[in-house]
Amino acid sequence: TLPARRHSSPVISNVGKALSHLSEDSILSLDPSKVDHSPFQDRFAADQEAEAELEVLKLSIATEGQKIPVLVRPHPTKADRYQLAYGHRRLAAILAIMNEAERSELVKIKAYVRDLTDRQLIEEQALENGVRENLTWIELAMWALQLKEAGLSHRAICPVLGLSEAGVSHLFRVTSVIPSDIVYAIGRARLVGRPKWTAFADLLK
Asked: In terms of pTM, does the model score above 0.85?
């Protein structure tokens, strides 16, 4: 029997293009305290699992160094500061290392620096989310909502999230009904998938 043909995921294809682009950028060493988070929120407050993962990453960077640079843009309104496009966990780990260091001024973060519009920044941020495996279903739904508010159409959101149009519609079916403050109060809900969130949304109607 012939092996099934493997189709390339749009997300993986986009990652390849991004890596080619990044290889052309120079890597700079920046003061981590001058890097602000993205203005677009793609993560919920850290839970115990996320905190444990951060400790592991922090130990890895402290022991072996930062292997993968983050991506930042010059801050659009503050001189000598930057905004993060992606690398949230790496930044958090390096800031924690910096806070514990005897000479904090020696702690640096490796970063690609690129001029990005808001739309480009959110697309780069979405690209990292697309290949990250630890977003829960509701985090993905709330991130899709941010992409929509940033001006991306449903069709444009599909390849970014690696979902079909039906899959994206399911996300919006929930976020259009459940208020954001309730979603954030519930949290990441790691073991809860689409059926329960959809049922909850139907009850709220």
From this structure: no
